[in-house]
Amino acid sequence: MPRIIWSIWPTTGFIAVSIAILSAVFLGGFSCFQKCAVNAPIVTEWELTFSDEFDGEGQPDPEKWISQEYNRKPNSNGPDGWWSKDQVRLDGRGHLEILVSVVENQNDDQDNDPKDYATGMVSTEGIFEQKFGRFEARLKGPRQTGWWGAFWLFSDAVEQIDGSGRDGTEIDIIELFGGLRSPQHALHWDGYGRAHQVKGKKLWFLSDTDEWHTYALEWTPEAYVFFVDGKETWRSRAGGVSQSAVWLKFTGEIATDKNTQEYWSGKINDLNYPDRFLIDWVRVYQQKSEN
Q1: Bridge partners, residue 27, by sequence
Q2: Is the previous residue joined to 10 through a cis bond, with omega within 30 degrees of 0?
Q3: Which one, 32, 94, 159, 184, has the greatest CB density within 10 A?
Q4: CATH number attached to the domain at 40-287
Q5: What is the pTM of this model?
Q6: Cα-flanking dihedrals φ and ψ of residue 119, to 5°?
Q7: What is the pLDDT of residues 16-60, one digit of tens each?
Q8: CB 260 within 8 A of CB 78
Q9: Where are the domains of the chain?
Q10: Are 145 and 256 in contact (CB under 8 A)?
Q11: What strands lie across the sheet with 121-123, from one edge to the other?
């Protein structure tokens, strides 16, 4: 049954009730967005389990984050896309900054590329992980084409192949593409080979991803529910909801192959780099115990 908000009564109360009843009877109910909101999991209380406000300068807190370095997106026919610790830093204004830059060839013993590209990542792997709860962050996405930033949840259990995501799913809370390309939520399971399965949701309405927005996931044993600025944007049980704990990741991603640039990230233009992906804060909650 639709909920009615009594904002002004009695002046407009009768009109509001009438409109609600007529809508339900003659228009067949409410929009999908409203149905989703009515059916959303109701958690009255959360307790904080992890957070970072990214204060200070230099490298992020090593008691909360690790940063990996390797050739993340190798390309046998051109420059590679690396993860480097040099591309991750606290900016002194309360943000974690992940850059993308043009760099010299990082593996000249293996190829003759005239240059490479580097971005960075942080993860709570080995430090913090959680199953179910609310995961949220305030982000400003990249401005330039050719790369993207992501806020996602991962564990090695994603590699297990059994036709189901219940034993492990990569949960992409948001992927933000430079050049104002439409962002997306996504779920990946059954590894990354032939058995790989994926389900996603493009957010065509969101055209200013290079401005600040808050992206969130509420994950229960029964469903994934995604939000942008407090409004539900996608609800899914694709693959069967994962029952495995995950760690957090913030990453920059750049790949130089033609297909990625044409169909995914947009064309790389060296003149536009460095560019940056900003994280203002991150918070993780679990449902508060009744005891």
Answers
A1: none
A2: yes
A3: 184
A4: 2.60.120.200
A5: 0.84
A6: -135, -165
A7: 433 333 333 333 333 343 334 434 444 558 999 999 999 999 999
A8: no
A9: 7-34, 40-287
A10: no
A11: 121-123, 247-254, 147-154, 169-177, 181-189, 197-202
